[in-house]
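Sequence design from tokenized structure. All designs in this work follow the same two-part layout: the structure record, then the generated sequence. An example of the structure record is given first.
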């Protein structure tokens, strides 16, 4: 099939990836997270076509596309298509206003690196259709339907953080999001003279999606135990460390470890926000290290490459803190590095990483940026 790759678009939408300062695997446990969008984005170009129900979506990066008949939306065997189809399916459950369109997608977001190219794909696509066909969806509806798309068409039972950050972020701020009430606060972030340096391990251990859902199930198993003794506990958000410790034997070691990490992480996010507000970057850095420790030893979502980079960072005084970021099992570490030392640090980390794993490290600076938006001509 011939696809339209280049056309004068009616609408261009830019949808960013995200970082998360702290609060990992906290969202589906109804805890707190501290994410923001970054400057790296996916660009969508849209135009309506003259068909009532035939749509074309083309990925410039994969150099391949697919056709969709709006009257038969169903999952595909190709993973990236399911992010798009899942969104179309969710939108079709809400409205019948969508008509035929052509769309091209061009990504500057490294896939599988923990900066949530998946949420950027879902949210940017949903945002674009909302504008193109006047669907009158609110930003929050876009966030929620994109999350459901991932659950229903991709199979990852993700929390709400990534979609929320992709759509709701504001330049120069992080978002303190309470994933239980969905109340949120923008917190200005100025880390000078430190920078947020992302180091990409360039590995993505393919266990990730299955293991992610397993972690979620393990947390739910912990909640089920706690609920027998504390009926008010509906999620780990309502649990305390003392409760988790008290019921350690009933939970069993693995579920206990998962729950312990989650209740400790909940406190760390609040401590990190307090530290940010008084510019105590040393404290913030130590909290990042504590989170990594928990993710690696208790939650067991790290891998040798991520552990290596975090350990390596501890040998350099210019780094205040580092941890794996995102779901885990590969992707990036987030590092708080003194601006004068970024280049040297990157050079030494790259050399050491290459020597140990024979893999090239890649890096970028993350700048807190605006969420999904229309690109004006
Ligand atoms: C992935 C998920 F999509 C998020 O919802 C979140 O749970 C994150 O992993 C871990 O914090 O990015």
């Amino acid at each position: 099939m011939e696809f339209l790759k280049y056309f004068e678009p009616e609408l261009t939408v830019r949808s960013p990836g995200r970082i998360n300062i702290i609060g990992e695997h906290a969202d589906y446990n109804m805890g707190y997270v501290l994410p923001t969008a970054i400057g790296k984005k996916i660009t969508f170009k849209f135009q309506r076509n003259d068909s009532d129900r035939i749509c074309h979506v083309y990925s410039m990066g994969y150099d391949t596309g697919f056709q969709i008949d709006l009257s038969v939306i169903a999952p595909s065997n190709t993973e990236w298509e399911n992010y798009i189809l899942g969104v179309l399916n969710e939108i079709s459950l809400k409205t019948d206003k969508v008509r035929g369109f052509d769309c091209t997608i061009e990504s500057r977001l490294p896939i599988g690196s923990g900066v949530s190219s998946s949420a950027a794909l879902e949210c940017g696509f949903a945002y674009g259709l909302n504008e193109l066909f006047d669907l009158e969806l609110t930003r929050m509806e876009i966030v929620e339907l994109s999350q459901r798309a991932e659950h229903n068409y991709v199979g990852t039972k993700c929390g709400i953080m990534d979609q929320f950050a992709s759509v709701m972020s504001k330049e120069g701020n992080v978002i303190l999001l309470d994933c239980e009430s969905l109340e949120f606060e923008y917190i200005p972030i100025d880390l000078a003279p430190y920078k947020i340096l992302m180091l990409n391990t360039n590995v993505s251990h393919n266990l990730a999606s299955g293991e992610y859902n397993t972690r979620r199930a393990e947390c739910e198993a912990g909640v089920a135990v706690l609920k027998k003794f504390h009926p008010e506990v509906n999620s780990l958000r309502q649990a305390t460390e003392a409760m988790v410790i008290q019921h350690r034997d009933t939970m069993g070691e693995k579920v206990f470890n998962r729950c312990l990490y989650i209740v400790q992480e909940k406190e760390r996010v609040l401590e990190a926000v307090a530290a940010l507000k008084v510019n105590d970057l040393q404290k913030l850095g130590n909290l990042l290290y504590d989170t990594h420790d928990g993710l690696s030893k208790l939650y067991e979502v790290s891998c040798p490459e991520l552990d290596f980079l975090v350990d390596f960072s501890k040998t350099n005084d210019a780094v205040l803190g580092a941890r794996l970021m995102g779901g885990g099992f590969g992707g990036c570490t987030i590092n708080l590095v003194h601006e004068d030392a970024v280049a040297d640090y990157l050079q030494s980390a790259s050399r050491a990483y290459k020597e140990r794993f024979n893999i090239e490290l890649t890096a970028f600076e993350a700048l807190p940026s605006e969420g999904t938006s229309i690109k004006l001509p």
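The longest strand covers residues 35-48. We note this feature because it recurs in several other targets discussed in the main text.
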